Amino acid sequence: PAEHPTVLDGRGSADGEDAVFHVVETHGDTLIDSVTITQGIAAGADPIDRCGGGLLVANGDCRARGVTFNHNRSIGCGGGAVYASGGRFHATGSVFLDNTAHAGSGGAIQVDDAELVLGSHPVADQLRTLGLPKRALMSMWMGKMRGSFEAAERC
């Protein structure tokens, strides 16, 4: 793969006529290995086509091994690089560079009723050093939210 890199580019033509909403879309069990996913722009009319510019995981088990997610964006709900709705997204040895979400959350990854496994990824290593519990503390998305939180305490 290093000698002959594979790049999945969602740029389309200069006028945007043949641009894609998700560079890769998975339904069911999928392995994506040693490719670059770049220039995806999730900006379609359908709400799901506004999420996950690089990769849309719709149920199933999607494994990204050695994948570079570079310069993908979502205009709607979030997940500039990856939006996982249901199922599981497992990234190992993958890199997330310059991905953005213009609304919602998750410039790199947003999960909605899905399991996220980061494996051997620098972000996973950073999260492990925080000593958080194994289960999620909270996961939500709201259009507008106000809140206040007390000082953090160890459980």
Protein model, in words:
With about 160 residues, the protein is mainly beta. About 5% of the residues lie in helices and about 35% in strands. The protein contains 1 helix and 15 strands. The strands form 4 sheets. It has a 4-stranded parallel sheet, with no helix packed on it. The longest helix has 8 residues, at about 120-130. The chain is globular, with a radius of gyration of 16 Å. Residues about 135-145 have low confidence and may be disordered.
Structural class: mainly beta
User: What overall geometry do the principal axes of the alpha carbons give?
Assistant: globular
Sheet with the most strands, sense and barrel status: 4 strands, parallel
Number of discrete helical segments = 1
Mean of pLDDT: 77
Secondary-structure element series: EEEEEEEEEEEEEEEH
Q: Point out poorly predicted stretches.
A: 137-145
Q: Would you kindly provide a brief summary of this structure?
A:
This protein has 155 residues and is mostly beta strands. Helices cover 5% and strands 34% of the residues.
What is the fold's blueprint, element by element?
Elements: E1 6-9, E2 24-27, E3 30-33, E4 35-38, E5 41-42, E6 55-58, E7 61-65, E8 68-70, E9 73-74, E10 82-85, E11 88-92, E12 95-97, E13 100-101, E14 109-112, E15 115-117, H1 122-129
